[in-house]
Fold these 2 entries.
Entry 1:
Amino acid sequence: MIACLSLQIINKLMKVIDHINQAKDTLISFEVLPPLKGKGIGALYKHLDPLMEFKPSFINVTYHRSEHVFKKNADGSFQKVVIRKRPGTESICAAIMNKYNVDTVPHLICGGFDVNDTEDALINLHYLGIDNVLVLRGDAAINEATFEPEPGGHKYAIDLLRQVVNLNSGVYLQDELKDSHKTKFCIGVAGYPEKHFESPNMQTDLRFLKAKIDGGAEYIVTQMFFDNAKYYAFVDACREIGITVPIIPGLKPIYTKKQLTVLPKTFYIDLPDDLSNEVLKCKTDLDVEQVGTEWLLEQSKDLMKNGVPVLHYYTLGRPYMIVDVMKSLYGL
Ligand SMILES: Cc1cc2nc3c(=O)[nH]c(=O)nc-3n(C[C@H](O)[C@H](O)[C@H](O)COP(=O)(O)OP(=O)(O)OC[C@H]3O[C@@H](n4cnc5c(N)ncnc54)[C@H](O)[C@@H]3O)c2cc1C
């Protein structure tokens, strides 16, 4: 979790919540993944270059925990090996900030880290001038049936959130530190318009979401959804229980038929009948991209018309589809 980069002076760094509070219109943000280990950062820049034209207010960079795999030795025995397929979240945030002069939001997860690793990561981010974090639990490791916290690590996102809030108050793990420096992280958390898959029901999930907001989170970013009605119902349900913070919709394009089964299985979301019907009619991948682009554009227009604070796009896979949506959205 160490980021060693020499940073140029950045003009203006802002917290996500300040971007939102100062905005007159709906903002744009993008989410990217760190490159696979062994690949350079150049491909990520190529991915981002055309998107930067649309002046995103911030760019999120996901976090990927390490996985344990068993490799067979020549003598037939097995060796446990730790692999992190997409390392470098903090460094990538700093590199993006440095190259594009844009705010970045590293995701921070509980899985795979003990509280000391987490504190060191937060200190690194703070030194790099990164004052935003999206605080998450993370999913179960690939070889685990359910999420298991790291020994000495956090079990839920709210526990990690408390650690960040403590650091913002100058409370470090070593309580004997005197006159300790206060960080100033703006904290976002995840919300699920179609419920988190482990939650017994929506109300319980919302109660835990509210606890994260009451604990100090300043905004919510949602899981992707393809039916805006679900987002609006979620926002209403949040408001009813007293969640007043901005709720940023997470959006993703459909570009293959396979996604019709992969997305519900991976993210526990439904795709509307109209969308799946149109995709099923497609003869080529290009046709699917066309349908996906139009769907995303209509979703975006409707959300914008309804005054959402930010349109947050998951850009993995087909950034040019997002570019097409942006161009149509802004009449370019
Ligand atoms: C916008 C967004 C970005 C994401 N980025 C990443 C990423 O970069 N890397 C990654 O690995 N994953 C990422 N994820 C996936 C996320 O880590 C998983 O969805 C994970 O299963 C839950 O994370 P959470 O932060 O919502 O967990 P939590 O808020 O901890 O909730 C997890 C479950 O526990 C329940 N719960 C919460 N608090 C309590 C409590 N005190 N007691 C009992 N139950 C409780 C909740 O209702 C929920 O069912 C992202 C998800 C979203 C929506």
Entry 2:
Amino acid sequence: MFIDSHCHLDFPDLAANLDELLLRMQENQVTHALCVSVNLPHFPRVRALAEAHENLFASVGVHPDYEDQIEPEADELADLANHPKVIAIGETGLDYFRLTGDLEWQRKRFRQHIRAARKANKPLIVHTRSAAADTLRIMQEEGADEVGGVMHCFTESWEVAQQAIAMNFYISFSGIVTFKNAVALKEVAKNIQLNRMLIETDSPYLAPVPFRGKLNQPAFVRHVAEEIAQLRAVTIEEIAVATTDNFFNLFKVNRNG
Ligand SMILES: [Zn+2]
Ligand SMILES: [Zn+2]
């Protein structure tokens, strides 16, 4: 069985075909998926997905690319996370690629999320792009290691991965690892500790080969696992078992729902 540790099933393109996507998951042994929140106005629909479906979970947070949002306070985020199906805080983090200029607001927002995670005692889902040094520094300064979490859609170096792991974090690989030009990332996926690895789709974005350019969906997470198995010269079952165990360990959820 496989778990998609990061997707956005509430986004309109996916939400419109939810029944079909759940069926495709079932056909591909993708047993669970974590629906990740990107802003608070839409959080209720993310939570509703997790409430309506036993095998879906939710997170709560405000994405660093969503600039025009009311800034969330740690207390508010921690309160919203106080729900049995809300298993993480995020996605949060820093993105110096999509946005430029004075991004102090991103760093402040990230700190609020880490404080919320510590208050709620739930792990973090961290998005980092062109901002690895600041991301790690703020994680360190705010004590993110106390709750741990996942570096989602990982595209950074081996060194960044090891520093995150040293802070009690997991590394999650998306469809990017299947792309031909992702040479350095393939090396990270080949050599990283198996007990620290997660897999995800980040759907609707980043569909893996052979669906590159198409609308992504949780069922495709199997192709991420397949690529990693090939890189490591192990069976896909080994990757499935490890990443599934890692998911349940990190998010402290009962495998039987
Ligand atoms: Zn992200
Ligand atoms: Zn995402």
